């Protein structure tokens, strides 16, 4: 029979973890906590939640946060390898409660990760995250916000978009950001989604410092649309030269934020775009890919596929509707293939900074019990997806913080970021964006 560790040994293990990973706080907890059975178990729980990866701290003891030895952590390089081998978004896996385990790798369970993300944000100097999407994308943003709201200092809302024309057109005031010359020349048309609203929040990691992360959601009901444009008669037309709302956001709006976002999460609005033909959506993504590859700021970009729809949960008039002869789910599946085919070159190019994610239609195929109205899911779906994407990002950053140089650059090579040992702010030495520049941190 296996001999269980004594209370003293368990206390010692917890202290070793906290002393290495926890800094001053870990030292205080270790010294202040008595060696009784109850106190030691509490200390073990704290140490397991605080240190997400014992091996990264130089300790061999396993904790609840470690994956089984037979599996590997999911990473950008592993997903990229799967995409290259399979020719599609990675698929396969199963759910264990509210936690999804892909076939080829493993993620940490979502419920343990608020402290992990806080630490990741500090180490990577993460100061801004932007999500794109429709009402689904807004729910992913809400899940992301929820992780940061659970941190010590919480979050406060900075701005929310005031839709025009009774809540159907983009808010010029929001996207002009106080620039009255922009506001005066903008024209707006229907966005096609009354519940798609942009918003911006500030989330501070603790009360003792100014380490804050700006979270923003950019609402869009289509992957490429002209819901915001510049008046043809405006003298600014030549300066604000863009062909769609999405191009305006990437080329003009986001670079006006200081510092620009280091992480973009794009959730394609396929529940709206399923009405388009495959050829039309393919063209939209070709345009969007070109814009993303030439973005005038250094960032990591994750692009997902769509989720399944559950006809049995829809209102009577929306059940069993077909699109080009396909059910809603089959059409979204076919559009996912279109997205991957267009984006494949960028996904497999490590220097592009763009990467796909796990096939979310496959991932959601058995989750109709979580579906609320045929399209949207219960909150734990969104929390799981967001936590897995953030784990990919944070794992890449931790590799960088271990003195492994990671380089992301646009295809044109104009804006480069060489990351060695991560310093407090990603754009600490950020200067004029004009011309080619390497940002040395």
DSSP, total strands: 16
Basic shape? globular
**CATH fold category name of the largest domain:** Rossmann fold
| Average pLDDT number | 79
Strand order of the largest sheet: 4-6-7-3-9-10-13
In short:
The protein contains 14 helices and 16 strands. With 441 residues, it is α/β, with parallel strands linked by helices. The longest helix is centred in the C-terminal third of the chain and has 23 residues, at 379-401.
Architecture blueprint of SSEs:
Layout: H1 7-21, H2 23-32, H3 37-50, H4 76-86, E1 93-96, E2 99-102, H5 114-124, E3 128-133, H6 135-149, E4 155-160, H7 172-176, H8 180-185, E5 186-188, E6 199-204, E7 212-219, E8 228-230, H9 245-253, E9 263-266, H10 270-273, H11 278-293, E10 300-303, E11 322-323, E12 326-327, H12 328-348, E13 354-356, H13 360-363, H14 379-401, E14 406-409, E15 415-419, E16 437-440
Parallel strand pairs: 3-7, 3-9, 9-10, 10-13, 15-16
Antiparallel strand pairs: 1-2, 4-6, 5-8, 6-7, 11-12, 14-15
Structure notes:
With 441 residues, this protein is an alpha/beta fold. It folds into two domains: 7-57, no CATH class; 77-400, SGNH hydrolase (Rossmann fold, 3-Layer(aba) Sandwich), CATH 3.40.50.1110. The chain is built from 14 helices and 16 strands. The protein has a seven-stranded mixed beta sheet with strand order 4-6-7-3-9-10-13. A hairpin with a 5-residue loop joins strand 14 (406-409) and strand 15. The termini are far apart. Mean pLDDT is 79; it is low at 1-8, 16-24, 48-70 and 400-441.
């Amino acid at each position: 029979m296996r001999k269980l560790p004594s209370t003293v040994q368990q206390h010692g293990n917890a202290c070793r973890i906290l002393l290495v990973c926890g800094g001053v706080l870990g030292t205080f907890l270790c010294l202040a906590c008595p060696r009784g059975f109850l106190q030691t178990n509490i200390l073990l729980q704290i140490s397991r939640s605080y240190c997400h990866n014992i091996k990264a701290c130089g300790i061999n003891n396993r904790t609840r946060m470690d994956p089984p030895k037979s599996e590997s952590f999911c990473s950008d390089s592993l997903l990229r390898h799967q995409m290259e081998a399979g020719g599609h978004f990675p698929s396969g896996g199963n759910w264990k409660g509210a936690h999804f385990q892909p076939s080829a790798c493993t993620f940490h369970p979502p419920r343990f990760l608020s402290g992990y993300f806080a630490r990741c944000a500090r180490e990577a100097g993460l100061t801004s995250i932007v999500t794109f999407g429709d009402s689904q994308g807004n729910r992913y943003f809400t899940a992301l916000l929820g992780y940061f709201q659970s941190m010590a200092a919480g979050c406060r809302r900075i701005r929310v978009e005031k839709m025009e024309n009774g809540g159907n057109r983009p808010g010029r005031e929001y996207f002009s950001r106080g620039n009255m010359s922009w506001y005066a020349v903008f024209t707006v048309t229907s966005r096609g989604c009354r519940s798609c609203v942009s918003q911006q929040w500030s989330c501070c990691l603790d009360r003792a410092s100014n380490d804050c992360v700006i979270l923003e959601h950019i609402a869009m009901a289509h992957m490429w649309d002209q819901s915001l444009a510049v008046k043809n008669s405006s003298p600014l037309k030549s300066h604000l030269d863009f062909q769609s709302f999405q191009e305006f956001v990437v080329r003009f709006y986001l670079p006006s934020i200081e510092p620009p976002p280091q992480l973009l999460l794009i959730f394609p609005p396929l529940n709206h775009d399923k009405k388009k033909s495959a050829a039309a959506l393919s063209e939209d993504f070709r345009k969007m890919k070109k814009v993303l590859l030439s973005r005038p700021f250094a960032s990591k970009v994750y692009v997902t596929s769509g989720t399944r729809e559950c006809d049995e949960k829809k209102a009577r008039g929306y059940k069993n509707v077909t699109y080009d002869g396909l059910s809603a789910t089959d059409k979204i599946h076919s559009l996912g293939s279109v997205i991957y085919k267009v984006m494949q070159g960028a996904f497999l190019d490590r220097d592009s900074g763009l990467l796909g994610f796990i096939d979310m239609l496959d991932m959601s195929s058995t989750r109709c019990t979580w579906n609320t109205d045929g399209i949207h899911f219960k909150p734990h779906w969104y929390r799981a997806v967001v936590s897995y994407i953030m784990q990919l990002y944070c794992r890449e950053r931790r590799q960088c913080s271990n003195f492994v140089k990671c380089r992301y650059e646009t295809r044109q090579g104009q804006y480069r970021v060489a990351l060695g040992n991560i310093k407090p702010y990603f754009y600490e030495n950020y200067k004029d964006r004009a011309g080619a520049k390497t940002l040395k941190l």
